[in-house]
């Protein structure tokens, strides 16, 4: 069982033609007591808004829900500037920003926008260097130096500091990325699309082992799970995350209990998305909160 009470949120797709609905869903999440909104970051998608610009606009329209890129595309976002963006928005939003961070994917698209094309090993090393740069840019030091092959600082002046301590949550799947997460990150962001419960268990052990080897408490590393599926209205139960609200309550409680998942970010994959989000928010979330609290 996680030592944290579970938090709940929505996974939003930053489609430029859908901006009005994105603002409405964010306002609904804010007013309905949800905790998180994650927004994917694929700058090379021509139909997508820029994720940081969208998060800024939505944060300005809300008062309590927290936001994070799910996850930021590091190869197209310089980490020193990214750190400044996170800190700035955290101040503006009164401490409601976290940083989901990914090593990169879709390398043809990244290279098409002028970004680097990295091997798997290079991507992992670059991410480790980026985390060091970001933490240095959030420090109290007057001047910082961070050596690195991919990212470095040479006498940079940090600041401003974030309002609160934003979590650096890594989207990790492979063994080297999972080890990095346990060693350096504040959280892990897997997705149900590629991380079913049996994979969660194995990956969670890798993260815990890496954290312990780095003299960290494994419980410090949050686990925020992107849950995709359909909440049915007719009682049909098709298995994991595909069934009525009762099925979802049982699945999420089991994930919280057995896999220490303490954040659930919902991405409806079938049916009318607004109705799916209402079922999740109004039927699933209160029942899981009540049962987890009990």
From TrEMBL:
<dbReference type="Pfam" id="PF00296">
    <property type="entry name" value="Bac_luciferase"/>
</dbReference>
<feature type="domain" description="Luciferase-like">
    <location>
        <begin position="14"/>
        <end position="228"/>
    </location>
</feature>
<dbReference type="InterPro" id="IPR011251">
    <property type="entry name" value="Luciferase-like_dom"/>
</dbReference>
<protein>
    <submittedName>
        <fullName>LLM class flavin-dependent oxidoreductase</fullName>
    </submittedName>
</protein>
<dbReference type="InterPro" id="IPR036661">
    <property type="entry name" value="Luciferase-like_sf"/>
</dbReference>
<dbReference type="InterPro" id="IPR050564">
    <property type="entry name" value="F420-G6PD/mer"/>
</dbReference>
<keyword id="KW-0560">Oxidoreductase</keyword>
